[in-house]
Amino acid sequence: MLKSTGVKKINIAVFISGTGTNLKNLIKCSSKKQSKFKIKLVVSNNTYAKGLKYAKKFKIKKKIINYKNLKNSEIHILHYLNKEKINIICLAGFMKILTANLIKKFKGKIINIHPSLLPKYKGLNTHQRVIDNKEKYSGCTVHYVNPKLDAGKIILQKRVKILKKDTVKKLSKRILTQEHLLYPKALEKIISSL
Fold first, then answer.
1. Could you confirm whether 114 is annotated as catalytic?
2. Choice among 76, 79, 114, 180 that is catalytic
3. In the prediction, which pLDDT does 70 show?
4. pTM (two decimals)
5. DSSP string, 140-181
6. Of 65, 72, 76, 106, which residue has the fewest beta carbons closer than 10 angstroms?
7. In what helix (H) or strand (E) does residue 85 lie, and over which residues does it extend?
């Protein structure tokens, strides 16, 4: 009997708040024949997130979650994640902190991309802080999400040299290019270990 060459794909959800360039990149990677994942759901806390246009364009289900009541929002998120049989959650510029309960329910199955070389420069405004502190290198990190901000176990990192003429915009652009290479690689890596 001939073996099927089709790859069984893991269902993932991508959480966004803004432009969604990492989402767009993950969609592109997921459409490759040998990809190990399929994006089944896009979740956003922002009705006007530009990234939602990619969900529409590629016919991926999208859900806008109102974060005014954290408990209610979590009930809704869990409902949709279960409905779509989501195995892994990818945070891609999601500007809300997940509750400990949600993190516990998806323990070891939530990853995030952060624009610095963690554990340095957790939180916001990383590029500005890196430049202000005259660092030689910055970069990006894909890590597991735990209840502490940007403190989960590191999966992969990429170093980016900071140039003398770098502005926040220039550095941000160069790091984003590396994010687009790193995130799918990290995702494939953790899927292989499941």
1. yes
2. 114
3. 83
4. 0.94
5. EEEEE--SSTT-SPEEEEEEEEPPTT--HHHHHHHHHHHHHH
6. 72
7. none
